[in-house]
Amino acid sequence: MQLYNLREGIAINFSVEGNSIVITPQKRKKYTLDELLLGMTPDKFHPEFETGNAVGSEDW
């Protein structure tokens, strides 16, 4: 089903065209950075925090 961009849990649309049932995945809205940051205000920012030294292959 990957060929059709369908997988378990994905939202789909059903439609009827003639004698056929057509199933298509719902398209997700693409947001701009401005849209994503629209509701951000200084009181919603969290402070930085220390995570400690790298213990694996992290790259800071």
Automatic annotation (TrEMBL):
Gene3D superfamilies, per database record: 2.10.260.10
Keyword DNA-binding belongs to the record: yes
Name the record gives this protein: AbrB/MazE/SpoVT family DNA-binding domain-containing protein
Highest classification ranks of the organism: Bacteria, Bacillati, Cyanobacteriota, Cyanophyceae, Nostocales
Keywords: DNA-binding
Gene Ontology MF term list: DNA binding
